[in-house]
Amino acid sequence: MSTENKNIVRRWFEEVWNQGRVETIDELFPPHGVAHGLGGDMHGPAEFKPFHSAFRQAFPNMRITLDQLIAEGDKVAFSWTAEGTHHGPLMAIAPTGRDSRFDGMGIIRIHDGKIVEGWNVFDQLTMFHQLGVVERPV
Question: According to the model, what pLDDT value does residue 138 have?
């Protein structure tokens, strides 16, 4: 089971984020699924897709590398590194043309081969600093 669950997480990041395959969101994230930590809670594909679209437009060449995967029971914990160039608007921030590299992590709960719940955190401070939007505190 844990190998299968890890493969679902790998597929999510490769297809949804690296390839931009929106149809995979519908395949792997059911309407009753919940994503936490990306703003407010997002329920199902209808609420998740605008977030996904905004990030893919802001960083069209985004590449996410999974650094670690740990599975136990119905959950997979993971850490990742994202890299991309800011070519589109992001949260009212005009494109800067700057490269950004930042890290994140999360836990995904899987049921019947679908992602039914996900907890996410990522280093937005580093991303915004690299885009020139904020200064790092001293």
Answer: 72
- Domains parsed from the chain with CATH numbers: 2-130 (3.10.450.50)
Q: Which long-range contacts (CB under 8 A, 24 or more apart) does 6-11 make?
A: 6/69, 6/71, 6/76, 8/76, 8/108, 8/110, 8/113, 8/115, 9/66, 9/69, 9/76, 9/78, 9/108, 9/110, 9/115, 10/66, 10/69
Mean pLDDT value across residues 61-89: 97
Token pair belonging to 27: 């395949």
Percentage with pLDDT > 90 across the chain:
89
Task: Identify which of 102, 94, 118, 110 has the alpha carbon closest to the alpha carbon of residue 38.
Answer: 118
pTM above the 0.90 mark? yes
CA dist 113 and 1 (Å) reads 10
**In terms of Cα–Cα distance, which of 76, 71, 88, 78 is closest to 20?**
88
Mean pLDDT of 94-114: 97
Q: Is the pLDDT of residue 137 over 90?
A: no
Do strands 34-36 and 114-122 pair parallel, antiparallel, or not at all (unpaired)?
Answer: parallel
